[in-house]
Amino acid sequence: MTSIDTAPAPSTVLITGSTSGIGAATARALAAEGWRVVVTGRDSGRGRVVVDEIEADGGRAVFLPSDLTGSPAELRAFAAAAVDAAGGNLDAVVHNAALCPAVDSLTLTDDDLDATLAVNIRAPHVLTAALVPAMIDRGRGAIVVIGSWMAHVGHPFVGLYSATKAAEIQFGRSWAAEFGPRGIRVNTVSPGATRTPINAEDGDIIATMTGGIPAGRPGTPEEIAAAVVWLLSDGSTYLHGAELAVDGGITSTRSA
Questions:
Q1: What is the distance between the alpha carbons of residues 136 and 183, in angstroms, rounded to a whole number?
Q2: Are 37 and 59 in contact (CB under 8 A)?
Q3: How many other CB atoms are found less than 10 A from the CB of residue 23?
Q4: Where would one find coiled-coil regions in this protein (predicted)?
Q5: Is the Cβ–Cβ distance between 212 and 16 less than 8 Å?
Q6: CA–CA separation, 78 vs 97, rounded Å?
Q7: Which among 49, 58, 55, 57 has a CA at the least distance from the CA of 18?
Q8: What are the start-end ranges of the E strands in the chain?
Q9: What average pLDDT does the chain have?
Q10: Catalytic residues
Q11: 183, 79, 63, 181: which is closest to 123 by C-alpha?
């Protein structure tokens, strides 16, 4: 009879871009489940607020400032610092940070192009390559990529963002094939139109976008976070290389 691994779930997690929105909600949700969370982002003030909220609820968290537009060497130094902040051991990574310049291809600046490619593609790749070897040595670990429903449709104003999210989703599939046999589970959560502080001023647009989908409304960061929590739990141990469309049905039923 084949034995089933019943070892405890990982307990330390790095979440990039976790000072607000989906990342912050994920940090709070995982902390509530007993994880020690490394909260990261560019805004130290917002990062400390998230950590304070987690600790006030009895959770464990630490803030580590990050600039994911940095060079590969700087990203590898950040990865090492994240391991130290986690107490010397990182069991899981959530690649959440992303830039989304809401402009068309003709008005996209060179600086925005470079920064978006750096944060959305280069950083996840370099950080994964830096952090996965230790997971492989231990024989277990998990990675969750935050994709997007926009990776599956054409859009006139966020073509670069959509393309980078498609690349990240493919990272998730490829990493599952590469690292799964060595004990590392990799999966993707692709949110739909979700209300976050970033799009707070676009409420009417988001309401119109989601009015005709099965859910009939935008998503919340907490709903996306719940999917990440499940993917990092012992309840999803047979899931490898999957993409969960937590999008209210917008991808599968979108007609225009």
A1: 7
A2: yes
A3: 27
A4: none
A5: no
A6: 14
A7: 49
A8: 12-15, 36-41, 60-65, 92-95, 141-146, 184-191, 243-246
A9: 93
A10: 148, 161, 165
A11: 79
Q: Which residue has the tokens 């929590």?
A: 229
Residue 33 CB: number of other CB atoms within 10 A?
13
pTM: 0.92
Residue found under tokens 């670990």: 141
pLDDT in tens, 51-79: 999 999 999 999 999 999 999 999 999 99
105: which 2 tokens?
Answer: 């291809």
Tokens 């976008």 -> residue: 209
Residue 182, judged by CB atoms within 10 A of its CB (0-12, 13-18, 19+), counts as: middle
Residue 200 CB burial class (10 angstroms; 0-12, 13-18, ≥19) = exposed
The string of pLDDT tens digits covering residues 218-237 is 999 999 999 999 999 999 99
CB contact at 8 A, 14 and 93: yes
Q: Tell me, what amino acid is at 79?
A: A
